[in-house]
Design a protein that fits this description.
Blueprint (H helix, E strand, L loop, with lengths): L4 E5 L8 H13 L3 E4 L14 H14 L3 E4 L6 H4 L5 H9 L3 E4 L4 H11 L5 E3 L3 H5 L10 H11 L5 E5 L8 E10 H7 L8 H4 L3 E7 L3 H13 L8 E8 L12 H11 L4 E3 L12 E3 L2 E7 L2 E5 L1
Parallel strand pairs: 1-2, 1-3, 3-4, 4-5, 7-8, 8-9, 9-10
Antiparallel strand pairs: 5-11, 6-13, 7-12, 12-13
Helix pairs in contact: 2-4, 4-5, 10-11
Length: 306
């Protein structure tokens, strides 16, 4: 079997820790992947991985090469600047040729843009990135085995479902719909723009969400914005991953993520599940964005299959 080709590039934030990128390349090669690091992956311009022109050229260079896998070095910020200039047909052709665009965080903007401009034929994958997941130092935990194995199985076509545990109360739930979503803040930044997927694509979908460094009240505000914009109520299910990295405030007085989930459930006629292993955390599954999935719950065990 021919080894999968993987191109690592930097469409968003600057690579602040070059050693992490070096470790990531070494580890990805050890998995049997033919890894190519884009020429401008280490570029620097303020907090970005090179100027807008440099990062856009890298994105188009990877799309034209159509490798088996396209993976950003990291997220951060930067893709929003590029959205109006991206050659979406070029990216869609790469998907048709077999490229799996994989990432999360800021990469959500590109994944939703693909859905918006190319439709369901341009699916992508929510999953790990180079420095954050494969470049983590050994004394900080190294590469998470679940993240690594799930990613490889997804890229080779062996992965057909992921499972996790949720809260009680959803036993017997069975829904089908298009899986879409990603980082909550990035989704909100696209709402109302031409880079937001058409209603026909996401209505009746399975929406998954995560975020980092956002206090629960900000998470709630974002979720309510999606609800008040008519998005959440049209879904078959809303699945919440990790909302990590926030700091409690003395003003909270018991206001926490569980408060947010309880309030959201009181407002929606749609099941809101928690526990998805995805987000800015070490252990994350790899998910097919834009694909039709079936979500099944038995007891507290959830299975998302495609």
């Amino acid at each position: 079997m021919t080894a999968l080709s993987l191109h690592v590039f930097s469409p968003s934030g600057v690579v602040a820790q070059p050693a992490a990128l070096t470790r990531a390349i070494t580890r990805l090669k050890a998995l049997g992947l033919q890894v190519q690091l884009d020429a401008s992956a280490r570029a620097r311009h303020q907090r970005l991985a090179g100027s807008d022109d440099v990062r856009l050229a890298a994105l188009h260079r990877v799309a034209a090469a159509a490798p088996s896998i396209a993976m950003p070095t990291r997220g951060g910020y930067g893709l929003t600047r590029l959205l109006d200039r991206i050659d979406w047909p070029l990216l869609a052709r790469s998907v048709e040729q077999g490229t799996r665009w994989v990432g999360h965080s800021d990469f959500t903007a590109l994944q939703m843009g693909l859905l918006a401009h190319a439709g369901a034929r341009a699916s992508s994958w929510a999953g790990p990135m180079a420095t954050d997941d494969f470049g983590r130092a050994d004394d900080a935990g190294g590469v998470d085995e679940v993240t690594r194995d799930c990613f490889i199985e997804a890229m080779t076509g062996e992965l057909e479902a992921v499972g996790f545990r949720t809260e009680p109360g959803f036993d017997g739930l069975a829904v089908r719909g298009r899986l879409w979503g990603g980082n909550l803040s990035m989704l909100l930044s696209l709402l109302g723009t031409r880079h937001w997927p058409a209603a026909r694509l996401i209505r009746g979908g399975v929406l998954f969400l995560e975020d980092v460094n956002e206090h629960p009240y900000r998470v709630e505000r974002g979720l309510l914005q999606l609800h008040q914009a008519g998005v959440l109520g049209t879904q078959r299910a809303v699945v919440l991953g990790h909302f990590s990295g926030w700091k409690p405030s003395p003003l909270d007085r018991g206001f926490k993520l569980k408060t947010v989930v309880a309030h959201l459930r009181s407002q929606l006629p749609v099941p809101v599940l928690t526990g998805l292993p995805f987000g800015h955390v070490a252990t994350k599954v790899t998910l097919p964005v834009g694909r039709s999935v079936q979500l099944l719950v038995q007891g507290r065990d959830v299975l998302i299959g495609w």
